[in-house]
Specification:
By secondary structure, the chain is of the alpha+beta class. The protein has helices at about 20-25, 40-45, 55-70, 75-85; strands at about 5-15, 30-40, 70, 95-100, 110-115. The longest helix has 14 residues, at about 55-70.
Length: about 120
């Protein structure tokens, strides 16, 4: 069986993230990376669009949740994005990493990763 792995790399969005007063009042940059696995044997054999997982649909859902959301914790933000990724029935594994640039004074970013597997 062909297992496809879709990578969405460095999706740059803005959201309310954090619990400090200034973080609650203005949007901050986040950088999102997705890894989504699904069986692609039918898509490989038939070249039919409806046999493939539409990453554009997933990405649009992620953009909507992130840009409209207010999150205290990276954990909640990442969990919401992960939920979008595995809500599609054909997905058997998903991993989401969100970076919060400039979260620490002397670091490029702070990131959190969560993954999910179909039981």
């Amino acid at each position: 069986m062909a297992n496809a792995i879709i990578h969405v790399t460095n999706l740059r969005l803005r959201t309310f993230i954090g619990f400090n007063p200034d973080e609650r009042e203005k949007k901050q940059d986040v950088v999102i990376n997705l890894e989504i696995h699904y069986p692609a044997e039918q898509a490989c054999e038939t070249d039919q669009v409806e046999q493939a997982l539409n990453y554009k649909v997933i990405t649009k859902e992620v953009i909507s949740i992130v840009e409209q959301g207010h999150f205290l914790l990276l954990e909640k933000l990442v969990a919401e994005i992960l939920s979008v990724c595995h809500s599609h029935s054909s997905v058997n594994y998903a991993k989401v990493r969100v970076d919060k640039p400039h979260a620490l004074r002397f670091a490029d970013s702070v990131s959190l990763t969560l993954d999910w597997s179909k039981a």
